[in-house]
Amino acid sequence: xxxxxxxxxxxxxxxxxxxxxxxxxxxxxxxxxxxxxxxxxxxxxxxxxxxxxxxxxxxxxxxxxxxxxxxxxxxxxxxxxxxxxxxxxxxxxxxxxxxxxxxxxxxxxxxxxxxxxxxxxxxxxxxxxxxxxxxxxxxxxxxxxxxxxxxxxxxxxxxxxxxxxxxxxxxxxxxxxxxxxxxxxxxxxxxxxxxxxxxxxxxxxxxxxxxxxxxxxxxxxxxxxxxxxxxxxxxxxxxxxxxxxxxxxxxxxxxxxxxxxxxxxxxxxxxxxxxxxxxxxxxxxxxxxxxxxxxxxxxxxxxxxxxxxxxxxxxxxxxxxxxxxxx
Length: 327
Description:
Pfam families: E1_dh. This protein is α/β, with parallel strands linked by helices.
């Protein structure tokens, strides 16, 4: 059959409708993944700790898809959604979470150190702001190789008060490196409220100190994040240097599994839950409640199959425990 010459509808003039629906599904899949991970943790199937991104799916949905497959990702410890949006395979992710040989890091990385170097996903960091200095090295590599790649570096508002933040942004600026610094401001660094830790109203205001562009967007608005990251990438590819983007969002769950959440009220959490990025994006795509439930049903079935895959995957051989360790 001949293909139609009719142009595809663009959501808010920037995102193709088919791509938008794909992202909506991945947002729902991300939340289902996180909810399942929390359940498995309670059952003792996931060890260590984990940092859930429920409520922050809009940032991941807007950021990763705005870049090219040839670009680089430096993830944060709360980065499961970003990993999925970067094209992560659900089965291998689940296997990694459960410490299985079939996982991305052969079960050795787990939640906070999962990586897929083959897809330029350079991994998550358990150290707050630990990926920021690495972004300078990646950006310098891009510049020296004279490619038009960029590196997306993710971190939270707590990391913006680490020395590594200031040193990294300063160096990226003076060297004019193609780095996009994306701060997911979810209002709390562990239990420290943003307004208690900053004298500026927005993290993005700090960009002025380094002579780079800075802007703040609604992190629960997928299109707003998509536009900001797309524009920052375009500028970086032209040689205009780094950009600092702050995405305002909120984590519905605690900082980690040990967090009793005594520092915030239920009313505050409820208020932010009413700004659910999934429901907001679904409304933009004219997906009603019944349609969203069908998407959720499909996502949960995909999660179930991934858990089954991981359950049936082999445990790492103890004789290989030192493989991949360097000193």
